[in-house]
Design a protein that fits this description.
This protein has 6 helices and 2 strands, in the order H-E-E-H-H-H-H-H.
Length: 124
């Protein structure tokens, strides 16, 4: 019996009942922790970029890609917060004088920074 292209490329089959099932496994990939930003991007890929998600998953690059996206997004988020705090004059002195006002400003800054990171990195 002639070999199939799959067998010529080194693939093997296993018999299950009357059927030959190809032995397929995903390439080994180093597990890296993925934070909130990486999880958001993963959800985006699964919902709106299915081909990209499938290609990265089957090539074994998805986890490292998501870890890199998570790192970039976190760095951008922290940088934006610091820049906005300086631009708006949000200091530790304001925190001492009026904690509630400081919290309001900081929450507003975080929300703005989150939107920017989502637009630039996560949903791009």
């Amino acid at each position: 019996m002639a070999k199939t292209i799959f067998e010529e490329l080194g693939g093997k089959y296993e018999r299950q009942g009357d059927y030959l099932i190809p032995c397929i496994a995903l390439p080994a990939e180093e597990e890296q922790p993925i934070g909130t930003w990486g999880q958001r991007h993963l959800d985006y890929l699964k919902q709106y970029r299915k081909v990209t998600y499938t290609n990265m998953l089957t090539s074994g690059r998805l986890n490292s890609y998501l870890a890199d996206i998570d790192r970039q997004a976190q760095e951008r988020f922290e940088g934006l917060i610091e820049g906005m705090k300086q631009a708006q004059g949000i200091t530790e002195r304001l925190k001492e004088e009026s904690t509630l006002e400081w919290v309001q400003h900081l929450n507003n800054i975080r929300a703005c920074a989150r939107e920017i990171v989502n637009e630039e990195i996560i949903f791009a």
